[in-house]
Design goal:
The complex is a heterodimer of chains A (100) and B (782). By secondary structure, chain A is an alpha/beta fold. Chain A has a single domain, classed as Transcription Regulator spoIIAA, CATH 3.30.750.24. Chain A is 41% helix and 35% strand. Chain A is built from 4 helices and 5 strands, in the order ββαβαβααβ. Chain A is globular. Chain B has 5 domains: 163 residues, 2-Layer Sandwich (Beta-Lactamase); 100 residues, Beta-Lactamase, CATH 3.30.450; 47 residues; 228 residues, 4-Layer Sandwich (Phosphatase 2c, domain 1), CATH 3.60.40; 136 residues, 2-Layer Sandwich (Heat Shock Protein 90). In chain B, strands 1, 2, 3, 4, 5, 6 and 7 form a 7-stranded antiparallel sheet that branches. Chain B has a 5-stranded antiparallel sheet with strand order 9-8-12-11-10. In chain B, strands 13-22-21-18-19 form a 5-stranded antiparallel sheet. In chain B, a hairpin with a 3-residue loop joins strand 10 and strand 11. In chain B, helix 1 runs antiparallel to helix 8, helix 10 crosses helix 11 and helix 17 packs antiparallel against helix 18. The radius of gyration of chain B is 74 Å and the shape is rod-shaped. Classes of the chains: A alpha/beta (100), B alpha+beta (782). The interface between A and B is medium-sized, with 25 and 28 residues.
Chain lengths: 100, 782
């Protein structure tokens, strides 16, 4: 798993690459939280290169979403691979998240 | 062909020179001859003129004597007046030169004219008194002029029509008588001389073909001329005007002034001509001779023509001569050319032309002979060397086969040991090389492996390599440390190592049951360690020094532990130092990169992927060093699992979430072995991960390191996943499904894993059998 970010005052774009599973979701969460320290109105997760996610990863996404909503911000998911989209659909996350 | 060309070239070079030389000689000769002819002609003209003048003068002088004598006779009184008729008659009769003669007396007091006169009338001579009322001689030139000048006088020539009917000239000579003691002028004595002889004399002067002589009077009147019409009718001046030749007028003037000289004149019909003129002093006339140039030089021109014709013939003969001689001289060249072709075809004993002369041709023949001898020797030497070289090459091939036979090259090498997957390759830059790798089992679980690189290349390196490998095989022992083994090999290699060769060496002994790896390095490149699920990195090892240098060097053994999925990749510097055409090395960084981008973690594909990267880097550049790679994948560090086929169906892992990587690898391999599509991998991985992490988190306490069995198999079109653990009883299916419809902020974090399992598969069953939790998950597959 590897993440890269692009920070502007209006928006943070985070590109996720590789797998998010039980072994590394904690690391992922830490990395995201480091980037999210600012009060940015919009966060975009670019999932183009994310090729695997398990429930642990989904949980991080959910907690991130909650955090954003609490601060009045917005979380947007972008470019989901079909297999990942399927997991989102099955888990009902598709209806929770803004998927673009 | 070549012969003809050469003679042609010689002639074409010589010809202009010969022509130039010939032309120069002919021209010089011509000019000389011409000037000589001109000189000669001038002399000749002068002589001819002088001769003619002389003979004219002689006659004239002779004629002049007659009146002079008469005058003397008159003065001395030896002639009577009455006898004068008779005397004159006799005089004329006796002198064929004289046409007529008169003695004209100065008139007396009665002014009577008296002049006895004798003249020829046909063949007889008659005499009369010239003086009459009708003919007053006192006013005639012939009387008046000498009477006044008191000097003899030649009249202008004149044509005596009706009388002599001939061209005449009168010579008048005054005479004196003594009266009263005084010498007084008494009259004029004349003789008329026919000038026919003069014309004949002058006409008889024959000059070449069309040249001629001419005579002009003191007034410039033509006295003789080849064209009779000119005589007495024209003067030289009137002709000069008519013919528009001003120069002729000039010449005429000089002539009547009594001068002599040469001149060149352009005349009609005759053309350019040489003119010489000489005066007849006594009469005041002038003689000219004309030499036409054309005729003067006619002989010369004829001669020239002959010379040109002769030169042409000589030149033609010369050309024939030269080409024949050159052809004969160069004939051997054709034979040499033929011989050279025969030699080129491989027959060195080609016949050479016989050369008897001692010139360059002989030298060529000697060189040719020498070449033939040397070629024969050279080829025979070459044949020997080639045979020897072929022999060496064939021996080298055999040596290569032997060398390759020394290192193990059957893969997989130990099918009975499931924990190990191993692949190696060695590609020599030359027939035989100095790289080596080796691996062998020390007992049923300890694998000894090594890689080395002998200094230098070729046969010496390969021999040293063979020695090293033999020593390794004989000295390796599971009870020795790797450092001891290296020290022993080192001391043996140092003995009698006069050639100072050395070998960098890495040795490792892997306990295949525990993953314990003991290793020792002797100056070899650090191997690459590819930890399961992580990026490749270099081993951190003590460098050491190569074997064969110092026999008392102390090597140190190092330890590490390999986990399931860990791979160790060994190589020689031929890999990292492979150069492309820009002299860029493949380098350690590129090696790591190429390992990381390799999609496979299986040793064989990894080695082949790296080799492809190296070849891509090197491109067309020649391989400069041996390429050697050895990669060992440690598949599991668990207890000896020798259940054969069963081992493939299931895997036993520790209850540690870090085992997930290993599980994933195994799952992928298992699915591919079951012939299931790759796309299924993510789903099955997810299902297993969720189930496994549930067990790790809920059936065991954190930090426990208990065992979990996982199996994966197909029953018809059903994929069956089974997980067994000995943790506390825990039924994940009992957990209530989360409500996926409620808003995010109300959703609970957790409980999602088992829900996903249920959604992604077709059935999930839990059972507790003999203290073992058994979770069976089924999924329909195509």
């Amino acid at each position: 798993m590897n993440i890269t970010s692009q920070v502007t005052p209006e928006r943070i774009i985070i590109s996720i690459e590789g797998r998010i599973d039980t072994t590394n979701y904690g690391e992922f969460e830490n990395d995201i939280n480091k980037i999210l320290d600012t009060k940015t109105p919009e966060v975009v997760l670019d999932c183009n290169s994310l090729n695997y996610i398990s429930s642990s990863g989904l949980r991080v996404f959910l907690s991130l979403h909650k955090k954003m909503m609490a601060s009045g911000g917005r979380l947007l998911l972008k470019s989901l691979q079909p297999s990942i989209k399927e997991i989102f659909d099955i888990s009902g996350f598709s209806s929770i998240f803004n998927i673009g | 062909m070549i012969r003809e060309k050469l003679s042609y070239r010689i002639i074409s070079r010589l010809l202009p020179a010969i022509l130039l030389l010939g032309a120069a000689i002919v021209t010089a000769y011509y000019l000389f001859a011409r000037s000589s002819i001109a000189e000669h002609t001038a002399a000749n003209a002068q002589m001819t003129a002088k001769n003619s003048v002389h003979s004219i003068e002689k006659i004239v002088k002779q004629a002049e004597l007659i009146p002079a004598n008469l005058a003397w006779m008159m003065e001395s009184g030896s002639l009577e007046r009455d006898s004068l008729y008779h005397f004159l008659k006799k005089l004329v009769e006796n002198n064929p030169l004289i046409y007529a003669s008169a003695i004209a007396f100065k008139p007396d007091k009665n002014r009577r004219l008296f002049s006895p006169y004798a003249y020829r009338n046909d063949s007889i001579v008659e005499s009369i008194n010239l003086g009459s009322e009708t003919y007053n001689y006192l006013i005639m030139d012939w009387y008046q002029i000498p009477a006044m000048l008191k000097k003899p006088y030649w009249t202008e020539p004149y044509y005596d029509e009706g009388g002599a009917n001939a061209l005449l000239s009168t010579y008048s000579h005054p005479f004196y008588l003594i009266k009263n003691g005084n010498r007084e002028f008494a009259g004029i004595i004349t003789i008329d001389i026919s000038l026919e002889w003069l014309t004949q004399t002058v006409s008889s002067v024959k000059i070449l073909e069309s040249g001629y002589a001419l005579l002009i009077s003191g007034n410039g009147v033509y006295v003789t001329h080849p064209d009779r019409n000119n005589i007495m009718n024209h003067t030289i001046f009137t002709r000069a005007k008519e013919m528009e030749i001003p120069k002729l007028r000039e010449i005429g003037r000089s002539m009547i002034r009594g001068e002599s000289g040469f001149d060149t004149i352009e005349l009609p019909q005759i053309g350019k001509a040489l003119l010489y003129y000489e005066p007849i002093t006594s009469t005041g006339w002038s003689l000219g001779v004309i030499y036409p140039y054309k005729e003067m030089y006619a002989s010369l021109q004829k001669l020239n023509l002959v010379i040109v014709i002769l030169s042409a013939i000589a030149l033609a003969l010369l050309i024939i001569f030269i080409s024949t001689i050159v052809g004969r001289m160069l004939r051997p060249l054709t034979k040499f050319a033929k011989s050279a072709r025969v030699v080129a075809e491989g027959n060195f004993s080609a016949e050479l032309p016989q050369i008897t002369s001692k010139d360059e041709m002989r030298e060529l023949r000697d060189s040719f002979e020498f070449m033939q001898r040397e070629l024969t020797v050279y080829i025979s030497n070459l044949r020997e060397t080639t045979t020897a070289k072929e022999k060496i090459e064939s021996e080298l091939r055999i040596a290569k086969e032997i060398q390759m036979g020394m290192i193990p090259h059957i893969f997989p090498p130990f099918p009975q040991i499931k924990q190990i997957d191993l692949y190696a390759m060695l590609e020599s830059a030359k027939e035989v090389g100095g790289d080596l790798y080796d691996f062998f089992l020390l007992d049923e679980r300890n694998l000894c492996f090594a890689i080395g690189d002998v200094s230098g290349k070729g046969i010496p390196a390969s021999l040293f390599m063979a020695v090293t490998r033999t020593l390794l095989r004989s000295l390796a022992d599971r009870d020795k440390t790797t450092a001891t083994i290296l020290s022993e090999i080192n001391s043996t290699l140092c003995l009698n190592n006069d050639s100072n060769m050395f070998v960098t060496f890495f040795i490792g002994i892997l306990d295949t049951t525990t993953g314990d790896l003991r290793y020792c390095n002797a100056g070899h490149n650090p191997p690459v360690l590819i930890k399961s699920g992580a990026k490749a990195e270099y081993f951190e090892i003590t460098k050491g020094i190569p074997l064969g240098l110092f026999d008392d060097f102390t090597f140190n053994e190092q330890f590490t532990k390999l986990n399931g999925g860990d791979q160790i990749f060994l190589y020689t510097d031929g890999l990292t130092e492979a150069e492309n055409s820009s002299n860029e090395l493949f380098s350690e960084n590129r090696l790591i990169d190429s390992i990381n981008i390799s999609e496979s973690r299986l040793p064989e594909s990894l080695v082949k992927d790296v080799l492809r990267s190296v070849k891509l880097h090197v491109a067309d550049n020649e391989q400069s060093d041996d390429l050697t790679m050895l990669s060992i994948l440690y598949k599991r560090s668990d207890e000896d699992n020798s259940k054969g086929k069963e081992a493939e169906k299931s895997i036993t892992v520790q209850s540690d979430i870090a085992q997930l990587q290993r599980i994933n690898n195994w799952t992928e391999e298992r699915l591919s072995r079951l012939g299931l599509p790759e796309e299924l991998g993510n789903t099955v991985n997810l299902v297993i991960e969720e189930a496994f992490s549930n067990i790790v988190f809920y059936a065991y306490e954190p930090g426990d390191s208990e065992k979990i069995d996982l199996s994966l198999d197909c029953e018809g079109n059903m994929l069956v996943i089974e997980l067994r653990d000995r943790g506390r009883a825990f039924d994940p299916t009992a957990k209530k499904d989360p409500d996926t419809t409620i808003p995010a902020e109300e959703r609970e974090i957790g409980g999602l894993g088992i829900f996903l399992i249920k959604k992604l598969t077709d059935s999930v069953e839990y059972a507790r059998i003999d203290g073992v939790n058994v979770l069976t998950i089924r999924k329909v597959v195509k």
